[in-house]
Amino acid sequence: MPTSLIIVELGGPEIAIPAAKNFRPLRNLGKTVRKTIDTVMANRKAR
To answer: Is residue 17 one of the residues assigned to a domain?
Structure first.
């Protein structure tokens, strides 16, 4: 099925581990991470 959207893999240890490591420092800065996918997308964008 052709699509105009870019499909990226959001899973795997190379994304999940840095996302988990960023969660606590963000909380210490007073940032509320509401969903797991928020940290995953942020780490994916930062790469």
So the answer is: yes
Contact 1, 25 (CB under 8 A): no
Cβ atoms of 42 and 19 closer than 8 Å:
yes
DSSP summary character for residue 30: T
What pTM does this model have?
A: 0.54
What pLDDT sits at residue 7?
Answer: 77
Indicate whether 1 belongs to any domain: no
CB atoms within 10 A of CB 40: 18
**Measured between alpha carbons, how far is 27 from 13 in angstroms, rounded to an integer?**
22
Can you give the residue range of the structural domain that contains 34? Answer: 13-46
Residue 45: name the closest of 10, 4, 13 by CA: 10
Domain count within the chain:
1
